[in-house]
Amino acid sequence: MTHIEANGITMHVQVLEPPGVAARTAVLVHGLGHDSMASWYLTLAHPLCAQGVRVVLYDLRGHGMSEAPRSGYRLADFIGDLEALLAHLDVDGPILLLGNSFGAMVCFGYTAVHPARVAGMVAIEGGPPTAGWIGGVLAAMRANEHELPGFASSEPVSVASITCPVLCVYGGASPVAAYAHTVRRWIPQAELAVVPDATHTVLIDQPDGVRALIASFLTTLEAPQCDA
Amino acid sequence: MQADRQAILAEIAEILGAIRNDVNTDITMDSMFRSEIGLASIEIVALAGRLQARYGTTVNFAQFVAEIGLQSMQDLRVGLLVDYIAQSQELATG
């Protein structure tokens, strides 16, 4: 599979099927700017698949090889894309969501809206869609001269509904790590992990360290009751 | 059974042309995906996806790129991918 129509746009999608029956489905969501599904595909996609997980990767709207509409870049649009993607793929069991940077915010947003559909979540160098974290994304976009038309009008999403296990990974040398503690203000059960000396690009720079943290986290999740 | 490496090379060249319509270089075994053909990371992923659709479970492209590593991806030659596909096919067919 390469391209699908969902939520009114053409999305570039890759699905990696593990040998045998998949224990779960994991959806991997990348960050902003020049990022794409490649950052996941080239690092953690295969290791997850080798653990018996069906891995779904996609390019966010306006990124990689997905369509870039002129407008429609509010957080709600990104959450809607993920929802439409899962519907297109007929994924209805509790899933694993893994987000890198801005992708983490999309994952938190989706989980807040559909808490029963997420078995566990991993956020790398990102935070929940609170007013503060949305402001942080806007500041980062300004600093990098990157624009998502309409994103500034994104509404914060209440994350009180998120009760699933959450792992948050930060780079010890990343400016984002300074705000890591605020995640537990909103999501008390979140487990925080710091990769020493790593920067915001910890997923790319230290994939082995991130992989080990995620593998350990996945062992703490309850076994799925049915195929995802 | 011996796989036909030239046929695999031709398929890769055809897929590259579909992914990037400005690929006008003659693709050879020695062509380098990044520095010569100019593929971005996402285009390498797209290539892997199309090859996976073509070859199915016989060839595990995600494993191939994961084992190469990000750094080595910079120097990835077309011939290395051709060899991987051919060897996977030869293993599958005995």
Q: What would you note in describing this structure?
A:
The complex is a heterodimer of chains A (228) and B (94). In chain A, 33% of the residues lie in helices and 21% in strands. In chain A, helix 1 crosses helix 7 and helix 2 crosses helix 3. The longest helix of chain A is centred in the middle third of the chain and has 14 residues. The model of chain A has no long low-confidence stretch (mean pLDDT 93). Chain A has an eight-stranded mixed beta sheet, with helices on both faces. In chain A, strand 5, helix 3 and strand 6 form a beta-alpha-beta unit. Chain A has 228 residues and is of the alpha/beta class. With 94 residues, chain B is mostly helical. Chain B has five helices and no strands. In chain B, helix 1 packs across helix 2 and helix 1 packs across helix 5. Chain B starts with a helix and ends with a helix. The chains are: A alpha/beta (228), B mainly alpha (94). At the A-B interface, strand 2 and helix 1 of A face helix 2 and helix 3 of B.
| Nearest-integer average pLDDT of chain A | 93
Main sheet properties of chain A: 8 strands, mixed
- Principal-axis shape of chain A equals globular
**Oligomeric status of the shown chains?**
heterodimer
Give the count of helical stretches of chain A: 7
Highlighted features:
heterodimer, A: 228 residues, alpha/beta, 33% helix, globular, B: 94 residues, mainly alpha
Task: Summarize this entry quickly.
The complex is a heterodimer of chains A (228) and B (94). Chain A has 228 residues and is α/β, with parallel strands linked by helices. Chain A is 33% helix and 21% strand.
